[in-house]
Specification:
The protein is built from 4 helices and 12 strands. The strands form 3 sheets. It has an 8-stranded mixed beta sheet.
Amino acid sequence: MDKAALRRELVAQRLAMPDRLQRSAMLQRVMRIWLVDRPDTVIGAYWPIKGEFDPLPALHRWKEDGELLDEPQLRRIGLPVIDKVHKTLSFHAWYPGCPMEEDAYGIPKPKDTELIIPTLLFVPCVGYGPGGYRLGYGGGFYDRTLATLQPRPTTVGLGYTQGYLDDFEPEAHDLPLDAILNDNGIVWPV
């Protein structure tokens, strides 16, 4: 399997989806429902690139919903900041309107906000397959980060049905996600 070619093909397909906005709205609903009974108060996510699903509207709503509980709950959202030396990610507080700057890859990241440790981590999927395995962009940032985070957060992949690969074969170093959500619902675990 030529993973580089597969990544290019999946990103091109995702960008060309004529109904991507509708699928995004469906995945927003799936994500919001999935979060309802979760105990987490600190969630790590990502800034969407290359046509990825944008988790931030659903997470901002989740954060606001915490403030409306009978006993209000402070909920935090973190976005990744790259450690260029160790090629890992740390998560810094994000909120709409917070100061942002571009990282080395041109992706927006929070500027000078507090470091937070997520107990739940939403991960973008270029592709994904049976067993909870994901195909990312090939940098290994999430795998290296998960190997260092203690306690290890619950990991949830987010992607469109278009990215499902029935014959995807993970490599020995690949770590399965705890769950995968797409615009049709929960894909993993089944």
